[in-house]
Queue: 2 jobs
Job 1
Amino acid sequence: MPNTRISHVPPGSQDLLAGDVRRRRRVQSTWFALAEEEGYQEVIPPTFEYEEVFTRSAGPELAARLIRFVDRDGSLVALRADFTSAIARVVSTRLASAPMPLRLCYAGKVYRQQAEGMGRRRETFQLGAELIGDPSPAADVEVLRLALRTLWALDIRDFQVNLGDIRFVRPLLAGLSPDAADALRTAVDRKDRAALAAGAREIGAPAAVARALIELPELIGRSDVLLRARSLASGPDAEAAIERLRAVDALLTEEEREHVVYDLGEIRGLGYYTGIQFEVFVAGVGRAIGFGGRYDGLLALYGADRPATGFALETDALADLLAEEG
Amino acid sequence: MRPLRIALPKGRMMDEALTLFDAVGASVEESARTSRRLILPSADGRFEFLPVKSGDVPTYVESGVADAGVVGLDVLGESDPDVLRPLDLRFGGCGLAVAGPADAAYPDLPHGRTPRVATKYVESARRFFAARGVQVELIHISGSVEIAPLLGLSDWIVDLVQTGRTLAENGLVVFEEISRSTARLIVNRASHKLRLEEHQRLIADLAGALESTA
């Protein structure tokens, strides 16, 4: 009778050997070479932290997925679920008086609970960067460009970045009951026309808001979408969103623009991001393998109010794409 | 580039879906439809259809193996896949309902006994009873749910009701409807971005066809 505690590893964990290790190292070394060239310095935050570091910034979705345990003194600690939270803590404490802007990068594992049966791992490799102290569109583009260049450096060509600005949708959900806001947020996220129309009726939305909600699933495409969206923008926040996306678009090269889809209904990071946000989609992988954006309010939660923007890519997914090339 | 791959639920909903695709110029030849082929190409070359069990449609679409799919809202309520849901296709209408023998008590059993409820739709049933604050014991079974109360396995059932005939034949009545369901178009998130123009055309075509039959 074999001992199954030795012959298996817990669900969602795994050993990496041979090619799986080499491909991950190749992704990481490509990444660090690129990041260093752009002036980003590596940070290695601890593997576990007081859980508050993560619950303070993360929405309820991530907070529910922390892998926690009780420390010697009874404090709750959690395995690193996210590099950005840990880096926000470092910047607000040890680097509080460092000259801005700060350019920081990282690569390592993050740990999150996953439902069983979906084939998802509980420990995954990520890489990414944070640019802290610069509120400009140029900073947004610098970070977005770094993500694009990472994919190109790995010879990944067939990909699209889905780019939106959270300030376009946020005012449409303002002032609603939590349940109504949650239902509408879900409908926007799923581009569910029927639910959006029903939701707009249910909340008795003014005509302009109802029209914007119903049109949201269509507000996706190349830069001409930004012109269409401008006529639907309601209020200063939504106008600032369009203005920022147009400024970003103007700074992109023609080659970069081919990989950017503007999507005003992009709201995956509601509650975390405060300005532009993006997701990275690569041919052959059915879900986003990267995400990023501006999170100006986040560092204030740790005591240092600074504008910030950043991104993370899933190293494992990138490594698997290298495998397909042989 | 390969055609968009659309997962369809085998059975009546697949026939209705193919009729809708036919209306937008993407027909499947009769010989292919009746064959046991795993993938059915549309004659215009735009799509290939992947017939699978209805409960598996969300899995194929969420993983990206299929670019899009057609599936009932009731199935989405069970697996809650992370996919886009752009269109209500309006066919395949049915209701999820709590039912039981005509003489069974509902919603309270005598002496405060905890009701046992047999169903294929465990998640939807759990959400419904939880929202009502009713504690039940859910029993997951995978077919012929309507015989469960007759055999003494459960007090009530939660099941799909289309005409109510199957229920009546087994001496059951609907106590309460939980939700209405129709077929939805679902789309993989990554495919939607990587092949945006094709997906936008598909959604516009189907919406147009629904409009003209409305």
Job 2
Amino acid sequence: MNPFLAIDLPALLIAIAASIACALPGSLLVLRGQALMGDALSHMVLPGIVVAFLATGKISSGPMLLGALAAGLIGAGLIALVRRAAKLEPSAAMGLVFTIMFALGVVLLETEAARKVDLDLNHALYGHLEAALWLEPAIWSDLLTPAIWLTAPRPLLMLVPVALVLGLLLVLTFKELRIASFDPDYATLQGFRPRLIDFALTAATTLAAVAAFEAVGSILVIALLTCPAAVARLCTDRLATHITLSVVFATVIALVGYNSAAALETSGSGTMAAVGGLAVGLAVIVRRLRLHARPPAAGPGTGPDSAVQPLRPGSV
Amino acid sequence: MSPQIHLVDRPLSVAQGPLVAHGLSVVYDGKPALWNVDFTAPAGALVGVIGPNGAGKSSFIKATLGLVPWASGWATLLGEAPKHGRARVGYVPQRASVDWDFPASALDVVAMGFYRKLGWLRPVNRRTKDAARECLEQVGMADFADRPIGQLSGGQQQRVFLARALAQDAELYLMDEPFAGVDAASEQVLISALRDLQAAGKTVLVVHHDLQTAPDYFDHALILATRAVASGPMAEVFTAEILQEAYGGRLAPSQLAALAV
């Protein structure tokens, strides 16, 4: 057995795929100032996932996804209801609903039934990247056989199609996402349906959060949703470049995070999130230094203030 | 329900004029923002929608476009229900309704004026970009095509939004405070564009808050103070009496004198 092929390669691939799957919707959430929604969704899906576990008695992708999507929809409905019924501002209603639903998920996890199906609280919260084993490829050249990829660990078989579908959807609806995010009223007048696009983005975020659940757990998904996009936002003012860079940084954060975890013997998902946070800090410093060294040319409308594009509050 | 009541309820087929509002009301959280407004824009007119802050000027524009729900009454655009008529309406939104931090270049923004023609899922192609560049040229912003919209000055931003509305090649134009925060050069560009549109036979409604310039810019006015205080040719409605009524008596005599009304 080649230990790298059996242990490190699957974990690395899962880390990268989870990071990319989350960075795709995350890149837009950050731009739209909706990162909190991503956080809420990744927490609200937990009770749905646990109920799916309890119902089927095993970890399987289909029921898990259905349970999570149902929980996400119920949560979104509850947020709207609480907003109106309790007259709360949106972020307060969101915070209220997602913590309660998350708590419900944690309580369900601690029930006797959940213990029987071998569902571990720590793994549900923080993921279990290191658990992925891939014994089939004995030597490197085995990876050239297409059939061997079908024996890859389950999280990978779920994450790769999810990342591909999300990427394809993003490319297809690029123009719609741009107009609906920048100027929703104008999107309506141009014959598009910004609320349908909002809903699709919510669904895409839920899908990414569920797919990444086994790898990084439900708490740290938010780091994968926001960090690559936050770094990318500091590097560019173009939407296509922003999304591309988000994917690139997602890959780098996964690689550096996993390898640091191996070296430091820390949790894979936790280290990835920490590396993501460090990357944002580093990007802020580099940007400040560059702006300081090379002040923008004074032209019409280019004051020092207008050239700095701060992240909107609440986006990280 | 008798046919006659039906006709009074939704006389979409009999509405004459590019923009018609009848008994139009908008209510937010139980408070009326617009109350029982009757207004018909004459074809080919350059109409100033004038009134104090919170008079419902933006609500009026948004209600006629069907962007906010009607509490009562109805409106038509180019003789059709807003949902259909708005396809032929050029729109410059209120500054606050746009996300200025979103990464989009001036050219990206103008290209949005062609999105309806492109339809769902079709990407912005080279022809669209060339057409958008031409529209930017019309407002003297061709050199700024690749600049992020958030980094332009207020006047430049409004010129880009004007270019986007021009890209729509519409019959009716609705503009929400296009002159807000605009420099003198941009103001001239906007004014001459409005005149060009009128010369081409288009109807234009402009939300405007500056009483000083209103009589010079527009030939018609709709004076709003939640309800319609007055509407008609500028010379008839832009009087001290009507303005004092709209502004609740808050205009000082010196202000009125400066307006020479």
